[in-house]
Each structure stands twice: as C-alpha cells, then as structure tokens.
Amino acid sequence: MARKPVLTGGKRDEIIAKAMILFFENGYEATSVRMIMEQVGGEIGMFYHYFKSKEELFDKVVDAFFKDYEEKLSGLIRGCSSPEELVNMLLPIYEKSMQEFGALQGNMHWTIQYAMNARTVAAFLPVVAESLTQWGIKSETPPEILAGQLLYGISATIHSKTFEAMDESAKKETLVSFLGKVLAG
To answer: Engineering a disulfide at 26: which of 18, 30, 35, 112 sits with its beta carbon 3.0 to 4.6 angstroms away?
Structure first.
C-alpha cells in the first residue's frame, strides 16, 4: 500500500523541532531516530509515518532553519547595483546573524555548522551569479564559477578570527578589496 503524503503541522513539526535541537547539539551521526522520538514521546513507527529516513528529516530541519533567511537575502542581493553596495547591505545583516548564530553555536556540533555554511553558500550561488551578470562584470571565468569563488572566499574571510576582531570600517574595506581583486582578474 502506498504511503499517504503527510503535509505539515502537528507531530511532524514537533519531530522537526526536537530533531533540530538534537542535531545542533550532537551532530548528525550521533543523533538517532530513537533519541528524537524519545524527545517527542512517540514510537519509531510514527517517525516513519512522517519521514522516509533520518537523512530526509535532516534536510527538513535545515530547510526549516533557512526558510525565511534565504528568501530575504536573495531579494536583497538582487536589489544591489554593485559589489560595493552588496558589501554595504550584507555587513549589518552578517553582524546580526553572527550574534544570533553565536547563541546557538555554543551547543552546535561542528558537523552541523559545516552543513549550514555549505547550505548558505549553495543557496546564494545562483543569485550571486545572476548579480555578476547584472553588474556587467566581464570575466573569462563563467559567472557560476566566479560566484563560487566569491562566496567561498567571503565565507572563509568572515569566519576568521582576524575578521571578527576588526571594526566595521576595516571589515568593509577588507571585503570590498577582496571583491575588487577577484572581479578584476
């Protein structure tokens, strides 16, 4: 008999919420379906009513975490008319996000931090590639590859302890300089 599709709400959302906490604290590998269901107060069979696998649940957890964030930032990136405007717009958002993320990070397993960073970069690759074309950036490097170079470079920069210690103007100057160097070549 085919499984009926389960929409949203109720126990399904509760499973996602409890799984998010456990994945953040323990990491993906160290979190079992049984641990999640103990937190929810349900049986293993209930889990499989809502999800095909732990991997599918993890994807739903990440989707839930990023839902509004991706839409909001994609719209803001598309609204920028230059790389400098992008830096000016993103820096305050980055600062606020890092403060919010910092509260989670104390208990967050490194595997989840890595997965979330990779998801962030992947989500913005097409938007940044589109923006490079919109800004008239001329390069022999295809926009999709150039966007990846920019995003991974920016990610490495903003997650460094040296960058964190800089004041706002130094952060801005560092990012604008990096963008200029990558986009000029």
So the answer is: 30
